Amino acid sequence: MSNGGRQANLAFVYVTSLFFAWGFVTATIDPLVPSVRSIFSLSYAESMLTQFAFFMAYGVVSLPAGIIVARQGFSRSILIALGAMVVGCLLIPLATSMRTYELVLLALFVIASGITLLQVAANPLAAVLGSPERSHFRLTFSQAFNSLGTVLAPYVGATLMLRGGVFGENGHADLEASRTESLRNIDVSFVMIALAITALAFFLWRVRGRIAAAAPAEPLEYSSPFKAFGSKWAVLGGAAIFLYVGAEVSIGSIMINFLMQPAIGTAVAAVLDKPVLVAETAGKLVSIYWMGAMVGRFVGSALLTRIHAGYLLSAAALIAALLCGTVSQSAGLTAAVCALAVGFFNSIMFPTIFTLTLERSTAPVASTSALLCMSIVGGAFLPVLSGHIADSASLAVAFFVPMIAYFFISAFAFSAGRKGVAGATTAAAPSAH
User: Fold this and answer.
1) Which CATH number fits domain 223-426: 1.20.1250.20, 3.40.50.670, 3.40.50.720, 1.10.1040.10?
2) What's residue 386's pLDDT?
3) Which of 3, 83, 242, 341 places its Cα 20 to 30 Å from the Cα of 253?
4) Which of 72-76, 234-238, 293-297, 372-376 ranks highest by mean pLDDT?
5) b vs e for 296-309, b when ≥16 Cβ sit within 10 Å of the residue's Cβ?
6) Contact predicate 131/156, CB 8 Å
7) Which pTM was predicted?
8) Tens digit of pLDDT for each residue in 148-173?
9) Are 92 and 194 in contact (CB under 8 A)?
């Protein structure tokens, strides 16, 4: 292997660490949702504002993030993004010391703003660090580490945030002391993340010269997502991404509280040979939801070599919709298993929607890609809608929101499968998390 090849491979390894980082931070919000709900005595809809604040950054920051990458280059943009994430994490202890939920939301928005910039810089950088014919492999490999982050985060987050305090045996006996302990658990979680990101930023700053030497002299040209609104398939693909991310985040956000319902928790606890399903255990089970997505990416990659992407995506979305429908109409272990199983069928959705849209869009590739990345903002709106439904009806009924979203995705994918490719250009898809 030539020295240039080794340099590109090392740079790719460095960049892949970023995929793990933002996957971990994003999935940490899942155990945070039930934690803030209990600490601040929130409704389901109010607690879902954590996801709203987080994913709204994709809609607000995507445009300026593209401009920053175009002007500052890959390495500087990555360091700016990591710096923003650290600032956001350190705002969390300030928010908890002031007992201000609104400041928690602001901190999450700052963290997500950094992640948005990180994705805009790291996705194309991973794609170009090496031979063009292996760009899809590199993105898939990086996504595997992104998925690893989403699997580990709920487990670690539940261990740190959903133990003791308001979730302890005496949580309601001394409510103020319990809230203080739970707030301290949140502080510890995000300070640890801030320290880890700081260490990662320092390391990448040290090797920035190697990354710059292996990367193209200039970042990919920035193109406004608004140019893509002239293409029907770009708009439909954007809607599919909006609904997919919204559905995936909605399920992950309500999962812990859903599993802890008496009719569900008793059945799950019996299988785990535990007297009762506590919040920490329920939080750790969310890792199964995200692990399904990680395993499904490997299975899906193999199936995509034999089955048309549109039809495979349509089938996966249809099964996910049926699983959500089953959850809404059942109880006990059946509901729990079906809810967790949705993660496996989520696995291929984001990258497949992305590539199907790029193939059929008549808009410039950069503009279509930018619109699809902006559409991740769906993770802000659908969870709040699910929360309102959970408050007015039940958590089981809230699964109708992702069910409807998956039906639309299935129809989109089936139509895409029947529609010819508009252009010959395709691009590797970035990660949703």
Assistant:
1) 1.20.1250.20
2) 98
3) 83
4) 234-238
5) bbeebbeebeeeeb
6) no
7) 0.91
8) 999 999 999 999 999 989 998 765 66
9) no
Q: Where in the chain is the domain with CATH 1.20.1250.20?
A: 1-219, 223-426
What's the CA dihedral at 57, 58, 62, 63 to 10 degrees? Answer: -70
SS3 for 97-157 is HCCCHHHHHHHHHHHHHHHHHHHHHHHHHHHHCCCHHHHHHHHHHHHHHHHHHHHHHHHHH
Higher local confidence (pLDDT), 232 or 9: 232
Helix or strand holding residue 327 (H, E): helix 309-329
Looking up tokens 């109880």, which residue turns up? 331
Averaged pLDDT for residues 403-425: 84
- Predicted confidence (pLDDT) at residue 372 exceeds the cutoff of 50: yes
Classified by CATH at the fold level, domain 1-219 comes out as Growth Hormone; Chain: A; (1.20.1250)
Considering the chain, what is the average pLDDT of its residues? 90
